Amino acid sequence: MEFKLDEDLVLFAVDYALSKGARYAEARLQRDSSKAFIVKNGIPEAAGISESIGLSVRVLVDGSLGFASTDQWDNKDAIKSVVDDAVRLAKANKLGDEELSEEPTYKAKVFIDPIKNPDNVDSSDKILFLTELDKIIQTAHKEAKYPNRFLNLSERLTQKAYANSDGTVVISSIPRIAFFTFFVTVASNQFDTRYIQLGAARGWEAFDEWNLHDYLKEQAESIARVLLEGKETPEGIMDIILGPEVSGLSAHEAVGHPYEADRIMGREGAQAGESFIDPDMLGKKVGKEVLTVMDDPTIPNSYGFYLYDEEGVIARPRYLIKEGYINEFLHNRETAAKSGVNSNAAARASAYNREPIVRMANTYIAPGDMKFEELIEDIKLGIYIKTFGEWNIDDLRYNMRFVGKEAWLIENGELKYLVRNPILEITTPKFYESIDAVDNDLRFYAATCGKGDPGQGVPVYVGGPNIRLRNIRVLKR
Amino acid sequence: MLSENDLFNIVSEVEALIKKIGVDGYAIAVGSNLSRQVRFAANKISVTKTWDETEISVLVEKDKRVAAFSVGLSSKDMIPNMARRSLEAIKNAPPREDYAPLPSPGERYPSSPGAVDPSLRENPERLLDIAKEAIDTGLSEGAKKVAGTIIANVYSYVLVTSAGFKDSANLSNVYLDVRAFTSKESTGHASIASRTLSEIKAKEVASIAARDAKFSQNIKSVDPGKYNTVFTIDATASLMNLVGGSASAYAVDAGFSFLVNKLGSKIAPEKLTLEDNPLLPNGFRIRTFDDEGVPTRVLNVINNGVLENYLHNRFTAKKFNAEHNAHAGWLSPHAWELVVYPGDASWEELLEIINKGLIVSNATYIRFQNYIAGTFSAIIRDGVFYVENGEIKHAVKGLRLSDSMPNVLSNIMEIGKERRQVFHWWLESDIPVVTPAIAVKEVGYTKAF
Q1: Distances (CA, A) of A269 to A263, B42, B188, B211, B409
Q2: H or E segment to which residue A181 belongs
């Protein structure tokens, strides 16, 4: 059967699940068509094409959730078989008390048409493009060598037909394009590594905006300069400026994740972990008035873009922290029901065969009015961490660390010289209460957020402006 | 899930289609799996899941250029078109300098040391019973909350290559992962992985997790700095995953590896030998041939402290001028299952050896600052304990492991004698590991401000 982007099969699955005793059922038919091109150390390697099509169902039976999927999406017997399995295992649980929140129903279509369809760009040109970029990295700095270089260009079209037993039907088609590179830099007999990821929900036109030729040269040069010119990082208490790449990651890791209601309620306890945030912290002051952190799936062409989530709930911008106060958590219908609120459309699944769980989309610190120069003008001694390498945060999202790649010493309001591997290791409450200013330079960076078991990597943006933190301890690596 | 016969029929059908396209070489793999999972959290079952999937993967070659594509079973009709598109994608690329043809089949193949456990396919309700047993045991042993996963996989795989290889592999595996809580910051974790369901001992696993969660109640801060450390079996498995991932010649070539330029060098004390073994009788990832049809074998990665082998497929073997050692994955070489040779030390002796230091039970969220130098940090959790005079004094909070892999390996003091197979979702390189605990001197730790 040829793939048709309509509701016939998902409605069949939903109806069959109801006939087998499900109180609620939803089904998702999803096709991911993707292409990838790799150039390693200047040599084009295998090109890859993938067609992943399948249908999943999720049922609520006697208070228990069952999920099942099949790649035999065009075979109604196979669909019946996985529905039977989902119902069978959910029924066997016998201990369930799950509910889903009541939500409005929709009949909607979401189609994003690329301006330049990647299918219309010759594959040879894509490989040539990557080899050009490889050359730019390889020759970025005359006093450095770049012996190892890995470049990956990927494109994906995700088409979904979704239906649930409440009556919602959503049909969508969203293209995504992504670029990733990793390279090793050697200078002054020392070496360092750096990776860069870009992505957007759009077509080939994204490359026109990204201007990768200049961007990669700048990035590869900066690592060489750190190796050639970088001085030891001074340790101690000082002011810190974090660039948008780092402030964006902090928004994702230290606000987005701990504000996921499934973590707060313990559903990810065995895997990604729980959260230092308790439900009764809603409304608590955690930062100064300049601090607003948002998660917004509706940003046009963003990497984490969607207008309806995987439970058929309409998306909207979420204010996680509003002017310094905890404003809302990220909910799907399962956590919303437990909290007595409505879902704010945070249910996402990375593929047809993955359960929808609470996820971020595009998480960012909102910008202010200041200019960068104003942020640093009164800093006597400080560090500006522009880009990062290593980072992690504990499973309660309380204890985080970022290690700078390109970082500068600030002295008397000026960037003085490059410093090596400054470490910011700080608790989340201390981090956010220390932010006293943000500038107007909001930038977004693509990332793949991992969560769930089996793992689900979903495309997201992390973003922010330059932000200033006062009186922070800096360590060196 | 399809039968092995069905898979052979599909492979033959696809092979006929690919031959008509006109390629120099091809490999076709069809894998079919039936997997079931029960997840539990906050003392109850959160969700049950079932996957029934069959994927067809094809690799085509023309004039020393290589392309790959994959489709689900229902998209089989798209294969000729995808093959043409794949060839079109690479037609103007330069020939691969590291090209080597698909290897001829080996003369002898090892026999598979393990059969599929049919109970994993036929009795999924048993997974619910095990999950409930883990919850009940954890609570009865003093935990306030229990969470975890049990997942069971049954998998059949058929590979055919234009070099004349054709064979099948059948595999089953299952793992249970349990995390127990006595408070948000006082947790314990344990896991078990096996080929068969009968080996999954829910009570034992949940008891260990609950025991460590209880021990973690007396939790204190200690200063950051260097501590002699015993890494438990689970924590050692995480570290060995980094070694296995970095030993892939592909990672070495791309610079993702702290083992670049280390082949033949002593990177650890003589007591450390690490092999890759896809032929373990109870192995989690048994395979008798790799994805290029080469017969698998046991291979030393680290032999008496010396890095003896990178893991190769045909391309990396050509580039590194090395022997193909049967580690081909579909596109890049990888480890099958890592095995650390046991030492002589009991658990108590490991604690005596470090005398004063830390026990680290789980190392997760490992991130490198510099892949070549191997500098990294990791979140440590689920039982971090301070030891003095070989005895556990209290649990420790707030520390972060911050060191380099070359340091950790070269500072191994002793290796335990008791081993267990570990596989769970958080392993960084997805490689099952059979390992004992290890004692390492002067490991670096930092702390948040």
Answers
A1: 7, 8, 11, 17, 31
A2: strand A169-187
Angle, CA A359 vertex, CA A67 and CA A177 arms, to 5°: 100
Assess whether B201 and B226 both reside in one domain: no
CB B363 within 8 A of CB B380: yes
CB contact under 8 A, A49 and B149: no
Give the end of a domain, one of B185, B215, B245: B215
For A206-253, write each residue's pLDDT tens digit.
Answer: 999 999 999 999 999 999 999 999 999 999 999 999 999 999 999 999
Q: Nearest CA to CA, how far is B214 from chain A (Å)?
A: 16
Phi, psi torsion values for B414, nearest 5 degrees: -155, 160
- Give the full edge-to-edge strand order of the sheet including B299-303: B306-307, B299-303, B274-276, B338-340, B433-435, B420-422
How many C-alpha atoms does A368 have within 13 Å on its Cβ side? 19
Residue-wise pLDDT tens for chain B (449 aa)? 899 999 999 999 999 999 998 899 999 999 999 999 999 999 999 999 999 999 999 999 999 999 999 999 888 889 998 998 888 888 888 899 999 999 999 999 999 888 899 889 888 899 999 999 999 999 999 999 999 999 999 999 999 999 999 999 999 999 999 999 999 999 999 999 999 999 999 999 999 999 999 999 999 999 999 999 999 999 999 999 999 999 999 999 999 999 999 999 999 999 999 999 999 998 999 999 999 999 999 999 999 999 999 999 999 999 999 999 999 999 899 999 999 999 999 999 999 999 999 999 999 999 999 999 999 999 999 999 999 999 999 999 999 999 999 999 999 999 999 999 999 877 887 999 999 999 999 999 999 98
Instruction: Find the distance separating the first CA and the last CA of chain A, reported in whole Å.
Output: 58
Domain count, chain B: 2
One-letter amino acid for residue A276 of the chain? F
Task: With both helix axes pointing from N to C terminus, report the angle between A123-138 and A212-229 in degrees, rounded to the nearest 10.
Answer: 20
Same domain, B206 and B292: no
B313 and B392 in a common domain: yes
Is residue B19 located within the same domain as residue B76?
Answer: yes
Residues B282 and B372 in one domain: yes
Contact B55 A72 (CB under 8 A): no
Residues B312 and B163 reside in one and the same domain: no
Q: Where in chain A is the domain with CATH 3.30.2290.10?
A: 8-210
Three-state secondary-structure class, residue A14: helix
Domain harbouring B190, CATH code: 3.30.2290.10
Q: Which fold has domain A8-210?
A: PmbA/TldD fold (3.30.2290)
Host domain of residue B234: 219-447
For residue A343, the number of C-alpha atoms closer than 13 Å in the C-beta half-sphere is: 29
Residues B228 and B186 in one domain: no
The verdict on a CB contact (< 8 Å) between B177 and A270 is yes
Q: Which of B179, B184, B181, B185 is nearest to B219 (CA)?
A: B185
B191, B192, B256, B369, best to mutate vs chain A, most A CBs in 10 Å: B369
Nearest CA in chain A to B186: A396
B344 burial level (CB within 10 Å; 0-12, 13-18, 19+): exposed
Same domain, B210 and B279: no
Nearest residue in chain B measured CA to CA from A420: B369
ipTM of the complex: 0.93
